[in-house]
Amino acid sequence: MLIGKKDKADISRARILDAAAGLFRQYGYGQVSLRVIAEAAGMKSGSLYYHFASKEAIVVEVLDLGIEMVHQKVDTAICAMSEQASAGELLHAGILNHLQALFAFSDYTSANVRIYGQVPDEVRKANRRVRRRYEALWMSILSRAEESGGLRASVDHDAFKLMLIGSLNATLEWFDPVKDDVQKLADSYTEILLGGLLNHVESNV
Amino acid sequence: MLIGKKDKADISRARILDAAAGLFRQYGYGQVSLRVIAEAAGMKSGSLYYHFASKEAIVVEVLDLGIEMVHQKVDTAICAMSEQASAGELLHAGILNHLQALFAFSDYTSANVRIYGQVPDEVRKANRRVRRRYEALWMSILSRAEESGGLRASVDHDAFKLMLIGSLNATLEWFDPVKDDVQKLADSYTEILLGGLLNHVESNV
DNA sequence: GTCTATAGCTCGATAGAC
DNA sequence: GTCTATCGAGCTATAGAC
C-alpha cells in the first residue's frame, strides 16, 4: 500500500504501518498488541522500537495517512478540472475521487473513521489538523461550485460539507468494491446529494 | 438512562450497562477493562459476574440497546402519522426522530456506531439481527412515502436507506445537542436529502 | 536492523467468605 | 448481591547480544 520506499528501514516502516492499519481497522486500537503488529509485519515486537517510539507514534501516522491519501486524490482531481466545469461536474468529481481513495487505501481510511474517536487525546489532537485541512478543501470546492452557479441558496455549505463527508465515509461499513462498482456508487450518491429524493414539483416538510 | 427497573439486581444491571456504554463509546471495546466498568457502576469487578457471564455478554446488550432505542422511537412516530401524510412529512418525521433518539441515548447509540466493527465476530453477528430489523423499518417508510407519491423514480431505495442511516449516524461525531438544536439539524438534513444541493433547473453530472 | 529475554503491570475470570 | 484474593495470561517497553 505504501510505495516508493528505498532502503531497508523505509521498507520495514511501511510494512509496520500497513500491518497496523489493517489490524486497527479490524480490531480497534486497544485490542491490537504490538506483538501482533510485529508478527503481521514479519518481525518481533522488540524490533518495532527501532522504527517507532511507541504504539501511539504508530497510530498517529496511520490516522494522518488515512486522511492525507484522500485529500491528495480529491485535490489533484479538482485542480485538474476545466474552468468551465459546472457545479454538478465539480461535485461529482469530488465525490467520485473521495470514494475511490477511500476504497483504494481502505485499511488506512477505515482505521481512521473507526478508531479516531477512541485513541488517546494527544493522538486525536494530532490528527485534527489534517482533518481540518481536508474539510477546508471541501469548503473551497463548494465555493468554486457556487461561483459557477446552480447551488440552492437554502443549503448551508458547512452542514452540507459535514453531511457529505460523513455519508461517504459511512459507505466503508457496507460497500464492497470487489462485488460492486465504485463509479456506480459515486453516481448514486451524487444523484441523491445533488438532486434529492423528492420530485421537484412539491416542496418538502 | 435505563429506567423502569424495580429490584436491586435490575438496578445494578442497568448501572453496569450505562457505565459500559459510556466507556465503550469513549475508549473503544478493547481498551475498557471490567475493572473500570465496575468502578463506574459503583462496584468491584468480581461483582459483575453475578449479572453478566462475560465482557462479551455486556457488549452484546449495549449494542442491541443502541439500535433498539432508535428503532422504537422512529417506529412509534411513523405509526402515529396520519394516512394523508406526504412523502416529505413522513421522511422528515423519520429523520427527526432518528436524530432525537441518537442524542437522547448517545452513549448507547454512539457506542454502537463506533465499536460495532471491532467486537468479536459472535458479538457482531448477534447485533446484525437488530440492525437488519431497523433497516427494514426504513424500507417500509420509503414504501409508504412512495405510495403517497412524489418520490423520484431514479433514486434507489436501498442506496438511499443506507446513505440516510449512515449520514444521520455520522452526526454523532460532530454535532453537539447542548450547543445546537436537534430540530434544526433535522430540518437541515431533510432539506438536503429530499431537495438536494442543486437548483432544480439544471440536470446534474 | 533485528533478535532474545524480561521487568513491571494489567487483564478476564474464578473461588469462596459474608 | 457484593466482597476479597488470586490464577494464568498477555501487555508495553527496555536492555543488550549479534
Describe the structure in your own words.
- The structure is a homodimer of 205-residue chains.
- Chain A has a domain at 55-195: Tetracycline Repressor, domain 2 (Orthogonal Bundle).
- Chain A has 205 residues and is an all-alpha fold.
- Chain A has 9 helices and no strands.
- In chain A, 68% of the residues lie in helices and 0% in strands.
- The mean pLDDT of chain A is 94.
- At the A-B interface, helix 1, helix 5, helix 6, helix 8 and helix 9 of A face helix 1, helix 5, helix 6, helix 8 and helix 9 of B.
- The first copy, chain A, binds a DNA duplex (18 and 18 nucleotides) through residues 8-9, 12, 33-35, 43-47, 49-51, 54-55.
CATH evolutionary superfamily of the domain at 55-195 in chain A: Tetracycline Repressor, domain 2
CATH class of the domain at 55-195 in chain A: Mainly Alpha
Report how far apart the termini of chain A are. 46 Å
Q: Give the ordered list of helices and strands of chain A.
A: HHHHHHHHH
Gyration radius of chain A, in Å:
19 Å
Measured by residues with Cβ under 8 Å of the partner chain's Cβ, the largest interface is:
A-B, 58 and 57 residues
DSSP E strands of chain A, number: 0
Q: What is the correct CATH architecture of the domain at 55-195 in chain A? A: Orthogonal Bundle
The parts of chain A where pLDDT drops under 50 for at least 5 residues are none
Note the quaternary state here.
homodimer
Question: Helicity level of chain A, as a percent range?
Answer: 55-70%
What number is the mean pLDDT of chain A? 94
Specify the overall morphology of chain A: elongated
Number of helices of chain A: 9
Helix/sheet category of chain A: mainly alpha
Largest sheet of chain A: none
The amount of beta strand of chain A, in percent, is under 5%
What is the CATH topology of the domain at 55-195 in chain A? Tetracycline Repressor, domain 2
